[in-house]
Amino acid sequence: MGDTGYGRIIRDGLWNNNQALVALLGLCPLLAVTNTAINGLGLGMATTLVLVCSNGTVSLIRNLVRPEIRLPVFVLVIASFVTTVELVMNAWFYELYKILGIFIPLIVTNCTIIGRAEAFASKNTLGRALVDGLSIGIGFTLVLVILGGMREFIGMGTLFSQAHLMFGEAARGLTLSLGEDFKGLLVAILPPGAFIGLGFLIAIKNLIDDRLKKAEAHKVAAPADSAAAGAA
Amino acid sequence: MVKHPVVIAAFLLGSFAVAGTSLVAFTYRQTQPRILANERQALLDKLQALVPAASVDNDMLEDNLVVQDPDLLGADRTTVYRGRRLGKPVAAVFTSVVPGGYSGPIKLLVAVRHDGSLGGVRVVSHKETPGLGDKIEEERSDWIYSFDGKSLQDPQPRYWGVKRDGGVFDQFTGATITPRAIVRAVKNTLLYVAQQGDGLYAQPDPSDNKPGGS
User: Fold this and answer.
1) Between chains, do A69 and B131 touch, taking CB under 8 Å as contact?
2) Most buried pick, A41, A42, A122, B138, via CB within 10 A?
3) Residue A69: inside a domain, yes or no?
4) Where residue B2 falls among pLDDT bands split at 50, 70, 90?
5) Does B38 contact chain A (CB < 8 Å)?
6) Average pLDDT in the A76-82 region?
7) Beta bridge partners of residue A147, listed in sequence order
8) Do A77 and B16 touch (CB under 8 A)?
9) What is the reported pTM?
10) Residue A171: is it exposed, middle or buried by C-beta count within 10 angstroms (0-12/13-18/19+)?
């Protein structure tokens, strides 16, 4: 079969090995910037960009770099890309850059990035490394946006507020609001809200996984012959 | 002759350091003018929200003054941006600092018109509790507008406080410390302006000396 495993890489990055929900890496930015959906989206996209760049570079140089200097080189590569992304955001997304503030340079310390460089990119071809970086990044971004959206909605009664910071003035209309009367549940925006929200997300993911597993077991058990034949 | 592996490793590491630094240096050169322009524009937008652009004809960013009065203005050094029209003083914008916030100092912009009334107040940065103290932000509530047009004559100095202290300014449910501290800081800035009088505008406008500059 000509399956190069891209489908599996994508499934792993988005769901099975989701860095935020399964590996629980990158918790610091995950918990700190997810008070609105747009903040989460901004940091998620910056992280994804860095992940793709660093995965690609690490994959290209994987045969060149000797094992003993591998980690310092990875750190150098990642730090250079993060600084570049920071400068570019400062120049073209100034308002968003001011909100995300310290968490842009801190992408360097997101364990996900060096983790993927070491565990995946340094052992795989360029194409696979890029796909891995992209799907891991998108998986991380989705969790940031969902957690941010949950906290924003419960805490402030709005969704996608300040969307214009990312998409220009036309995006102001994207903002949903429950109106002035909704006071919000303060705890959702405070740090504990981040932990509680993440806990719920992990629980929901495990619940879905359980359901899927049961459904599969059920399917295999009932028409055992045909399923076995199909699988072979 | 076989080169020692450490030499090769060191050379490789060095090359990557050079490549990484070059990438950052190149990006820095490309983005720097834009970043400086962004910062300048952001500050100018904030000043113009308090002192309408049409009411002045000088470059307020250039026409600044650094004053020292930690007791009234909250910081060791305070920058004052001055607006003039046809050479006559219009308003001064103070970068006052509120020392007594609930968690850490709060940075303000306080615009005082030449007649002693407030052009407005804005919060530049703060660390107050989200959902409680952050109603001082323009985006979250209209409270900060309650300073517009106020002066030391309206209300009288003893009514410069939050309602709980017998003053005229609203406090927030669950957060009295933050508005109380801001009211005091704004009042102190007005007191400073009253002390200084026209002296604030005395120093010649530096932008007059370089016509066509910037």
Assistant:
1) no
2) A42
3) yes
4) low
5) yes
6) 93
7) none
8) yes
9) 0.76
10) middle
